[in-house]
Amino acid sequence: MGGAERGLAGAGRDVVGPLVLGAWDAFLEQAAAVDLARPTRLPGWRAQEVCVHLGAWPDHEALADLVASARAGGTGTPADVDATNARVTAAHRDAPRAEVLAALRRHREATARHLAEEPVELDTETTVSTVGRLPVLSVVLGQAYELAVHGLDLVPLGAPPAPPSVLQAGLAALAEVTGALAASSGITGGAALLTPDGGWAFAAEPPGWTVRRVDGGRPPGAVVEAEADVLLDAASGRTNPAAALVRRRLRVRDLPELMRLAPIVESAPGIPGGPILALAARTVGGAGDLLGRLRGRRG
């Protein structure tokens, strides 16, 4: 991308590292507090499957694969996230609790090791992720979104709530990935993800994008506003965003502006935030009922 802005990937590890590792620490505490045999709100997934697919296993080391892809020039085809999840969870669905928690710790340790030891130049190199081609550090930050969302999955099972900082880290990752994908798709546009505790705004101006913290007030342009947990649930399809909008648990300002980002869903249907973008498309321009296709994706 030459000298173009590269969002939080360009901001570097001093910004991204604490967001990701803080999310890992919170999720490890949550996982340790629940019975892994209990079912979650995700159809067919117990806490066991949630934790297994987030772990690092000999047959599944997502971070190592991302680094290898970047070193190979970011070529290749994105893996099917649902097929990958099915393979990993089937292989380890009967793993003892201690092994599952150890796999989670291995992934956290691999992430910390990556941030401490890999060349900084790798951060903005393109890698092939499950949602498309993104800078390596953007994908690393994406872990914070997954961990925040899956932490919310574990709370009804007795896990302690994640601290607000972790939910904000999840929203930062959501802003980063959406901005990066918009830029790589040639889309100019942006939005703010706003909660009562502030939020994050992204703006794509191909070939680059920016991401910034919003600490107060309501920024201009498209705004998606809700409590942090509602925003993450709507972005991941746990909550139907259309229903949340009707119940005023979710508020959207400037839907036409948000609609400019909706084409991302067509090229990367599993992206974080896809259900919200699909809602914008359906509400404003009738881009088809993408919501039903996206609802229930596990992340």
Which key phrases capture this entry?
299 residues; alpha+beta; Four Helix Bundle (Hemerythrin (Met), subunit A); Nonspecific Lipid-transfer Protein, Chain A; 2 domains; five-stranded mixed sheet; two-stranded antiparallel ribbon; 14 helices; 7 strands; disordered C terminus
Short description:
With 299 residues, the chain is α+β, with helices and mostly antiparallel strands.
Which ranges are low-confidence, i.e. pLDDT below 50, for 5 or more consecutive residues? 285-297
- Report the biggest beta sheet as strand number plus sense, adding barrel if it closes: 5 strands, mixed
Structural class: alpha+beta
Number of strands: 7
In the CATH hierarchy, the third-tier topology of the largest domain is known as Four Helix Bundle (Hemerythrin (Met), subunit A)
Indicate the overall shape. globular
- Could you say what the CATH architecture of the largest domain is? Up-down Bundle
What spatial order of strands do you see in the largest sheet? Answer: 5-4-3-6-7
Question: Domains counted in the coordinates: how many?
Answer: 2
- Arithmetic mean of pLDDT: 89
Q: Tell me the name of the CATH homologous superfamily of the largest domain.
A: dinb family like domain
List SSEs in N-to-C order: HHHHHHEEHHEEEEHHEHHHH
Radius of gyration using CA atoms only: 18 Å
Through-space gap between termini: 28 Å
The percent range for helix content is: 40-55%
CATH class category label of the largest domain: Mainly Alpha
As a percent range, the share of strand residues is 5-15%
- Count of DSSP H/I helices: 14
